[in-house]
Specification:
single chain; 251 residues; mainly alpha; Cytochrome p450-Terp, domain 2; 4% strand; globular
């Protein structure tokens, strides 16, 4: 007979809520920051100061990057249905995919593969790049249409990780992968923010399987900010008209 499903995350009584065995009212509210609570809720262990700093820096990094596809979607949907802010945020979150923001998950999987390989990380990195090139695919975590020659965000993230003594095997694996990407391309290709975030979060003991969720969490806050700006300084009409100008009708 199969075991009945259970949850270890939360329960409640008439006078309290319990999360991972701790009292929400006595142990968590006013005691943990949102970043600390996020780590604790996800993994069931209290983060160290270093893990908190790296997760916090990653969430800050992913919150905002201007009028990205997710932001445009949110602004357009909010203006169409302002009575349902959650729908507008949901529309933007749907754009956190394998090409934008969600690449943190793919990058993390590759770094895990390099670290857990046969011990020759350099050779494994070259194999990863060769496989992607053979399939005509970009290596997730590399390249950026605006930030050239280098994305400024990885350096800031690495400095946080190094300052807290948490930059380890996965940051090292990312640098091996970066060298292999450059060698195969015959030119320098920047590590982008999602590549760096994948490395530092793995070194903070956060599994790759939930990293896209963290990207969603960070971007959600940014989308609410864009909705607030749309409320006071609407831009949707300008975006709509710009789209019509950029893509004229051809009979």
């Amino acid at each position: 007979m199969s075991k009945s499903p259970t949850t270890k995350i939360a329960t409640h009584t008439a006078d309290d809520v319990f999360v991972r065995g701790k009292s929400l009212c006595d142990d968590l509210i006013g005691k943990l920051t949102f970043t600390e609570m996020t780590y604790f809720h996800l993994l069931g262990t209290m983060p160290t100061p270093a893990q908190t700093a790296v997760l916090d820096a990653s969430l800050v990094t992913l919150m905002e990057h201007g009028l990205t596809p997710s932001v445009v979607a949110t602004r357009l949907v909010y203006t169409s249905a302002p009575e349902a802010m959650q729908g507008a945020v949901a529309a933007g979150i749907l754009a956190v995919g394998s090409l934008f923001v969600g690449t943190v998950e793919g990058a993390a999987q590759l770094l895990t593969r390099i670290v857990s390989g046969d011990g020759d990380g350099e050779a494994e990195a070259r194999r990863v790049v060769a496989e992607h090139r053979a399939q005509g695919k970009h290596v997730p975590g590399f390249g950026h249409p605006v930030h050239k020659p280098d994305d400024p965000r990885p350096g800031a993230l690495f400095r946080v990780a190094e300052a807290h003594g948490i930059a380890g095997r996965h940051v090292a694996a990312l640098k091996l992968l970066a060298a292999a990407v450059d060698d195969a391309a015959g030119k320098h290709v920047t590590i982008n923010a999602t590549g760096a975030i994948a490395a530092v979060l793995l070194d903070a003991s956060i599994p790759s399987s939930i990293m896209r969720g963290l990207a969603i969490l960070a971007r959600c806050a940014g989308l609410v900010g864009h909705i607030h700006e749309e409320q006071s300084s609407p831009a949707m009409r300008a975006m709509w008209e710009a789209a019509e100008r950029a893509v004229p009708h051809e009979p």
